[in-house]
Design a protein that fits this description.
Helices cover 35% and strands 13% of the residues. By secondary structure, the chain is α/β, with parallel strands linked by helices.
């Protein structure tokens, strides 16, 4: 079972041809793992979300396999546990797209829709995919707070929200006010590498979402 998009009009086609290197990699994996999703990964979450979470790209054994962002790998274990702690989930995350998990108040969108080799998209691939990210952000009318997971997500978020990168430097818990009134909060990516090396702890990650709730409270008073 694969989860349909909550923003279907903004998604690329299943056989999106825009990035030749990613298309070739996708075709290889469709032969090697025909039961995997192996396609651009849809957004996941609440269309009325006030918080938009921007990831990097699908993980090979996570979203590229299951068809749902951050589902089936370690990054998802940490992300969904944190979202549950702060009241953004309904149901229980069980690392499967049919586990019944739903998000409330949050939407996950990726800077790059397709799996890149070694989890490293090229600058051209990031630029090529950015219109889909921008369309999804624009179709979240209540999203005034954005969380960027990692530097690539940060750079794409700043660009689609009208900011300027020289002024908006990435850093964990760095906070940026964008021209349209949105607030961008940066986080180190919740990857196994970052947590294994101690660059990101669960407490550091939780602080990002605690700050998002505080900013929301300030914006609504």
């Amino acid at each position: 079972m694969f989860v349909p998009s909550p923003l279907p009009a903004t998604e690329p086609p299943r056989d999106c041809p825009r990035c030749p290197r990613l298309v070739a990699f996708r075709d290889e994996l469709r032969v090697e793992h025909p039961d995997w999703w192996n396609a651009p990964v849809n957004a996941f979450g609440d269309p009325d979300a006030w918080l938009a979470i921007i990831g990097l790209a699908p993980g090979k054994h996570g979203a590229n396999r299951t068809g749902r962002p951050f589902t089936g790998d370690y990054a998802g274990d940490l992300l969904f546990a944190t979202l549950a702690k702060f009241g953004f989930t309904e149901g229980t995350y069980d690392a499967r797209p049919d586990d019944g998990l739903q998000l409330k108040g949050a939407m996950i969108i990726n800077a790059v829709k397709c799996l890149p080799p070694q989890n490293k998209p090229t600058p051209e691939e990031i630029r090529t995919c950015r219109p889909f990210l921008e369309a999804q952000a624009n179709n979240l009318p209540n999203a005034r707070i954005f969380v960027a997971l990692g530097q690539i997500a940060h750079q794409s978020a700043v660009k689609i929200l009208g900011g300027r990168l020289p002024k908006a430097k990435f850093g964990h818990l760095a906070e940026h006010r964008l021209p349209g009134g949105q607030v961008l909060i940066d986080s180190y990516h919740c990857s196994r590498y970052n947590t294994n090396t101690g660059r990101l702890t669960a407490e550091m990650f939780e602080a990002v979402f605690a700050r998002a709730l505080d900013v929301r409270a300030a914006l609504t008073t």
